[in-house]
Amino acid sequence: MVEEARAGEALFRPVRSGNPFEETVERLLQSIKLGVVGPGERLPSERDLAARLNVSRVTLREAIRALTEAGYVESRRGRYGGTFVNTRLPRPRRVGPKKLAKELGDEWGGGHQDALEDALVLRSALELGAAEAAASRSLGADERDHLTRCLADTAAARLTDYRRMDSRLHLAIAEVSGSPSLTSAVADVRMRLNALLDAIPLLERNIVHSDEQHQQVVDAILAGDAPAAREAMRLHLAGTAALLRAFLS
């Protein structure tokens, strides 16, 4: 489909020189964890992936082998073979707030509070802009269907799948903004955000509220109301930010 191709274009972009193996693993994990390639679905062929990522087939195979050993994918032989995402994915690593604080401080060269605020500010700048840009465009039928399908999948998701489908919806909003660069940036910040979210519990009332806010964002985008889309997204992100600050500060 058109929108799935856009997501692949954004996430399976050429890796930078210097760390081809690590960045290939990162790109593949993004596509899985953000729901672009779902459980049971097949990744693009090795030839296609190697060309799109601009890496050698050897590097790609090493990355796929690493993800196989980690439990994310499996390789199948035969006419309908290829590399498939496992139907059951590894559970996110649960990290307590104190340990996460140390990891964030080590990774970003400062205090964990600075790292948290950095991620939240970046997310707000990107996703408010994405919602506004999406609502400002004249969306085609495929784009509208893609957005409503991702919304429905998120609302119907099981608790264990919720964060992945939530990520997929937010990525879909970036996709229909029409900017692959923005989609890539949203994917990157979402991976950072998910590391934070995995350290706090999923709250049922918050999920219900998030679903309501998702509906408001999508309705505003489909209606072409850019100010309303931006405001609905602002309120939605503010709720998530409040929970993260409450649990991790």
How does this model look, in words?
- The chain is mostly helical.
- The chain has 2 domains: 2-85, Winged helix-like DNA-binding domain superfamily/Winged helix DNA-binding domain (Arc Repressor Mutant, subunit A, Orthogonal Bundle); 97-248, GntR ligand-binding domain-like (Four Helix Bundle (Hemerythrin (Met), subunit A), Up-down Bundle), CATH 1.20.120.
- 69% of the residues lie in helices and 3% in strands.
- The chain has helices spanning 2-11, 20-33, 46-53, 57-69, 97-108, 112-136, 141-155, 162-175, 180-197, 204-222, 226-248, and strands spanning 73-76, 82-85.
- It has a two-stranded antiparallel ribbon with strand order 1-2.
- Strand 1 and strand 2 (82-85) form a beta hairpin.
- Helix 3 packs across helix 4, helix 6 packs across helix 8 and helix 6 (112-136) runs antiparallel to helix 9.
- The protein is globular and about 50 Å long.
- It starts with a helix and ends with a helix.
- The relative contact order is 0.13.
Task: Chart the SSEs and their pairings.
Elements: H1 2-11, H2 20-33, H3 46-53, H4 57-69, E1 73-76, E2 82-85, H5 97-108, H6 112-136, H7 141-155, H8 162-175, H9 180-197, H10 204-222, H11 226-248
Antiparallel strand pairs: 1-2
Summarize the structure.
The chain is mostly helical. It contains eleven helices and two strands.
CATH topology of the largest domain: Four Helix Bundle (Hemerythrin (Met), subunit A)
DSSP helical segment count: 11
Distance between the termini: 42 Å
| CATH H-level superfamily of the largest domain | GntR ligand-binding domain-like
**pLDDT under 50 segments (min length 5)?**
none
Q: At CATH's second level, what is the architecture of the largest domain?
A: Up-down Bundle
Rough shape? globular
Strand content: under 5%
**Structural class category:** mainly alpha
- Summed up, the domain count is 2
